[in-house]
Amino acid sequence: MHFMVYIYKKTIGSKEYFYLRVSKRVNGKITIKDVAYLGSSIKEVKKSLEGLKRFQAEIRKSYKNLSSSLQSGHFLELARKSKLKSDNYLEKNMLEQVEAAKLHFNNHFLKTDPATIRETFKHFTIEFAFNSTSIEGNTITLQEAKRLLTDQILPANRTLREVYDLQNTEKTFFWLIDEKPAFDEQLIIKVHDLLLDNIDMRKGYRNHDIHVFKSRFDATPFAYIRTDMRLLIKFYNENHQKMHPLALALAIHHKLEKIHPFADGNGRTGRMIMNYILITKGYPPIVVSKKKRADYLECLRQADTSDLTRAEPKNYKKLVNHMAEELLESYWANFNI
């Protein structure tokens, strides 16, 4: 016999009522039953779950998922009630869920005590650093990354380059959220310098032409990098109040990859800049997962036909919706406190 517990919401008129529901499989047959009334608010539900003696083992095992489901559902309703305008880049359901995460991020998470915020960002950064560096070939495991960034325990049989890769990612992320620098060309160069510290001495823009492996585009010739980077900043300045912040952050990330201004570290720099734009616009940052690397790269490639002055929805819609899914998965896993 297998139990699964989850929260079920009933809406009667404008009032919401929450119940603990049990799904039970016996001999291949599934039965579903409401076993406890939990209340009509998040506060009441949490208190009820803590005091409920029956199914305590199942509740404890599923508590994080139960809490995430409750919070995301509540803020999704708030987002829907705000009468969101349709967006050319995001599907309606995805837009509502992204805005729900934004509401929770600003109205709940960022209003907790500073120590909790810092600790939560620390846990996020471990996940982000592991995945972002793994996408580029870093072999340090997630558990090794946790020990390295939490307890300064060096992983065995790994290179110092890989160690610095993770440490630099954490250092750069916290520098950005602490200093809150203005977004400009010099910021991009500074982020790249921080990420490549002790890894690659080739700081600043590359001074040679390159071919990006398996790309469908030609990286900017080195003689025109400064010109194209200024076009990138111009694109940001002209669109940062017009485009949805997620679409804007991803357009900047993609166009930075297409220019490929640095000899190494373009992907890591792009993902960091993407998250900084999101945070400055009031949205939570994203873990770009290693396990979805192929889908992520393919979505980037589909935007390659767009030039540096435009971001047509037909070219970016798949990338934006893919990364919206990544945002939701990483947000409720890391920031639901």
Explain how this protein is built.
This protein is globular. A hairpin with a 2-residue loop joins strand 2 and strand 3. With 337 residues, the chain is mainly alpha-helical. Helix 4 crosses helix 6, helix 8 packs antiparallel against helix 9 (245-259) and helix 9 (245-259) crosses helix 12 (313-334). The mean pLDDT is 92. The chain folds into two domains: 2-83, no CATH class; 109-334, Fic-like fold (Orthogonal Bundle), CATH 1.10.3290.10. Strands 1-2-3 form a three-stranded antiparallel beta sheet. The protein has helices at residues 42-51, 56-81, 92-107, 114-135, 142-151, 160-179, 185-195, 225-239, 245-259, 266-280, 293-302, 313-334; strands at 2-12, 15-26, 29-39. Helix content is 57%, strand content 10%.
* Rg computed from alpha carbons, rounded to a whole number of angstroms: 22 Å
- Count of all domains: 2
Counting DSSP E segments of at least 2 residues, the number of strands comes to: 3
What is the ordering of alpha helices and beta strands? EEEHHHHHHHHHHHH
What is the average per-residue confidence, as pLDDT, rounded to a whole number? 92
- Quickly name the level 1 CATH class of the largest domain: Mainly Alpha
Assembly state: single chain
Number of helices: 12
